[in-house]
Write a structure and sequence with these properties.
Length: 137
Amino acid sequence: MRKFSVVQIAAWLAFSAGSAGVMAEHQMPYDVYKADLDRIEREYEVDKERCDSLDDNAEDICLAEAKGKEEVAKADLEARYKPSRKARYQVDAAKAEADFRVAKEKCDDKDGNAKDVCVEEAKAAKAAAIADAKREY
């Protein structure tokens, strides 16, 4: 009879538990996915309507926030429905893009060099967030 070491048994248990966790993530039923997708789209429409009461750049900022919130929520839903490293990266990329769009709209309230600096800082923040996401996944 073969003897197993404590390390071999612990490694096997850790691997088995990890595999079970991955399998559990694949269990989102399609109807739950579809219901969540519909909810996200309804929330976006409500957020968009709320922005209609604002004027000028405040409306643009509000719309950028609403669109970003929708895109991040959809990416997160996809990552929960079909979990993968790529899907998690897509969530982080969607967050970076949403933050960039909002920051860029906020820069529109500035003039001249201050606006240019603001836009460059927003671009740098987006690039850093994307680089972090690539490193992580």
